[in-house]
Task: inverse folding
């Protein structure tokens, strides 16, 4: 087993990786590695190197090609659930291949996160990317209003908004015949989207879709979305 560590590309200097105190603690104390042991260093944007620990740094041995990413970029617009629910969303959906997390404050959102919360989300995404052997660490945007978030992606095609009730096609059937380079999917918080929010999305070419006949929790819906997209995209590449 090769352990993985996400680094900043600026830490690479003349084939050496200058490790910070936290990274050294993780490698030497948590993983119990020592001088001469090797690990996989990733820069979070697709590059990877096999590295060997040497005192307070690591020597790059060779670059490594890894292919674990989805063939399309998946971005999740998620109305923030209450409590610490978004942490679970980030952890599970990072493992499933999500590239971008777009947290939003909707009409029914109860959580109002502070900057420290956003930093914690990014740390969770990094840890989940390392654990699941991802090439990249997903980007987590600063929380924004729902209206601003859907306006910012209006030029993108293949946009979907998940609606709990109503007669509409499933996300599964809507994606089956397509091979998009980018997919954007929006899921609501407790209580779902308001009628006004759904109408706003439709006006910006979001297609309303269903995740099935049951009502899913705000934490469950984005995980189901990610699972569906992963299953469809990877079945087409096998």
Result:
């Amino acid at each position: 087993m090769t352990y993985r560590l996400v680094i900043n590309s600026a830490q690479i200097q003349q084939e050496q990786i200058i490790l910070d105190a936290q990274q050294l603690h993780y490698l030497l104390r948590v993983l119990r590695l020592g001088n001469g042991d090797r690990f996989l260093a990733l820069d979070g944007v697709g590059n990877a190197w096999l590295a060997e620990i040497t005192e307070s740094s690591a020597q790059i041995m060779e670059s490594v090609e890894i292919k674990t990413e989805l063939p399309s970029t998946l971005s999740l617009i998620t109305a923030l659930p209450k409590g610490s629910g978004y942490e679970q969303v980030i952890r599970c959906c990072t493992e499933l291949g999500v590239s971008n997390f777009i947290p939003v404050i909707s009409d029914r959102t109860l959580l109002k996160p502070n900057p420290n919360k956003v930093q914690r989300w990014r740390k969770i995404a990094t840890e989940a990317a390392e654990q699941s052997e991802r090439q990249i660490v997903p980007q987590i945007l600063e929380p924004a209003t729902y209206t601003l978030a859907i306006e910012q992606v209006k030029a993108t095609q293949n946009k979907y908004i998940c609606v709990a009730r109503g007669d509409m096609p499933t996300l599964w059937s809507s994606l089956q015949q397509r091979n998009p380079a980018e997919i954007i999917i929006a899921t609501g918080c407790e209580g779902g989207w308001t009628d006004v929010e759904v109408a706003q999305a439709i006006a910006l070419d979001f297609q309303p879709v269903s995740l099935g006949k049951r009502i899913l929790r705000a934490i469950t819906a984005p995980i189901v979305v990610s699972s569906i997209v992963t299953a469809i995209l990877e079945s087409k590449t096998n």
User: Anything to note?
Assistant: Helices lie at 21-30, 85-96, 115-131, 146-152, 171-176, 195-203, 220-237. The first strand starts at residue 4 and ends at 6. The chain has a mean pLDDT of 91. The longest helix spans residues 220-237.
